Amino acid sequence: MCPVPSRSRELPALPAAAGSSCGRRVVGKKPALVSECFVVVAQVMAEGELPAVLILDIGGTHGVLEDLAAILKKHFHLITMKEFLGNKEEMRKKIQSVFVFECRPTIDRELLESLPNLKVIANSGVGVDHLDLKMISSFGVKVTNTPHAVADPTADIGMALMLASARRLVEGCHIAVSPDTKYFAVDWLGVEVTRATLGIIGMGSIGYKVAQRARAFNMRILYHNRNRRRKEEEEAVGARYCAKIEDLLQQSDFVMLVVNLTPETHKLIGKKELGLMKPTATLINISRGAVIDQDALVEALQNKVIRAAALDVTYPEPLPRDHPLLNLNNVIITPHIGTATVQAIRMMAEEAIANMLAVLNDQPIPSEVFPK
Fold first, then answer.
1. Distance (Å, whole) CA 206 – CA 127
2. How many CB atoms lie within 10 A of CB 102?
3. pLDDT above 80 (res 17)
4. Residue 2: its pLDDT value, please?
5. Which of 48, 181, 293, 358 sits 20 to 30 Å CA-CA off 323?
6. Shortest CA distance to 248 belongs to which of 277, 283, 280, 211?
7. Are 85 and 105 in contact (CB under 8 A)?
């Protein structure tokens, strides 16, 4: 599922995104600015009308934020889904790109068949589990995402959830402001993050940034990943590789999930895995809700198999209001806000624009996603 942040969130005017990456995957070199990615294409666009990009809507409950639409309009002619459906014959041949914001518009076979000149679907965000990559590829259409824009804010929310759960901040806030509170109990205790063991499942760019932050807390860092990191990368954050996920689960005080949702990671953490964790351990999920078997998690939390959970993602989103996870005092749930910052939203739009313009002008694509 995809985040549904409040539409009251506004993006104040920001300075040019100095330091924002156009997505070049070059290790050891400073990435080019997003604005530099536009130089060649700006010259091309000056010779004719702006290329058309399909979006769901502007504003409203699910549409592109108005500030982001303004950025897109500098490089594209925006066509909303309503406009497209109202005049398909005129619009269908113009549209070469689709900008997917918060998993919308839905990309299905019917839409792909109706857009004969479509070249690229640019996803705003790193997760693409809502896109059928093989089907899209069969139409000769490329898919891109925005991994560079999301890494820092998502790592930040992972650390925030770990600290909030460890020190029981949500419960503490309720106690502090409750009209029924007469005194603060001396036996109301949390646990420390400093010098604890953190197990990171998924050591991609986000997972590695979590490790960098955890290093500052003198945490012992374990990680499990499909591919082991280079020795110098491990040493830089003091991380130790666990080839078996079971070893990581048994040793960690905090387990953080930072994996993509794939058939292999669907319900990666179930009853067996929860049973391997320490009874004092906390499970943190900043990836996708379906990575955890939520029924098993409810049971584990109710029976104190693990101490607590902190989730920025669930399945579905939002959870039904009668879901048992919502009634447990040892779980924190936030509304998929890993990338919900002014800076991240803007950078994701810029990275998506760079991807679309690169495809349309036969330039190297900063962040292409390939079907597996």
1. 12
2. 18
3. no
4. 52
5. 181
6. 277
7. no
Q: Tokens 């600290």 label which residue? A: 163
* CA distance from start to end of the chain: 20
Beta bridge partners of 283: 255, 309
Chain Cα centroid distance, residue 252: 24
Residues contacting 26, CB < 8 A, separation 6+: none
Q: What is the mean pLDDT of residues 112-126?
A: 97
Which uninterrupted H or E stretch holds 240? strand 239-241
Q: Is the pLDDT of residue 43 over 60?
A: no
Tokens of 291: 């990575």
Residues 6+ apart with CB under 8 A from 55: 63, 64, 69, 72, 78, 79, 80, 81, 98, 99, 101, 105
Residues catalogued as catalytic: 288, 317, 336
22 — pLDDT class (breaks 50, 70, 90): very low
Is the Cβ–Cβ distance between 229 and 239 less than 8 Å? yes
Q: From CA 329, how far away is CA 311, in angstroms rounded?
A: 13
Tell me what pLDDT residue 32 has: 44
**CB 354 within 8 Å of CB 34:** yes
| Cα dist from 160 to 22, 154, 163, 278, whole Å | 27, 10, 5, 21
Q: How many CB atoms lie within 10 A of CB 371?
A: 13
Cα 35 from chain centre: 23
pLDDT at 281: 98
Is residue 15's pLDDT more than 70? no
Query: With bands split at pLDDT 50, 70 and 90, how would you rate the model's confidence at 49?
Result: confident
Residue 118 near residue 142, CB atoms below 8 Å = no
CB environment 2-19: b (16+ within 10 A), e (fewer): bbeeeeeeebeeeeebee
How many Å apart are CA 101 and CA 185, to the nearest integer? 46
Token pair belonging to 91: 């619009």
In tens, the pLDDT along 198-223 reads 999 999 999 999 999 999 999 999 99
Residue position matching structure tokens 């499909």: 226
Q: Which backbone phi and psi does 171 adopt, to 5 degrees?
A: -60, -40
Cis omega (within 30 of 0) for bond into 316: yes
* Rounded Cα distance, 199 and 35, in Å: 37
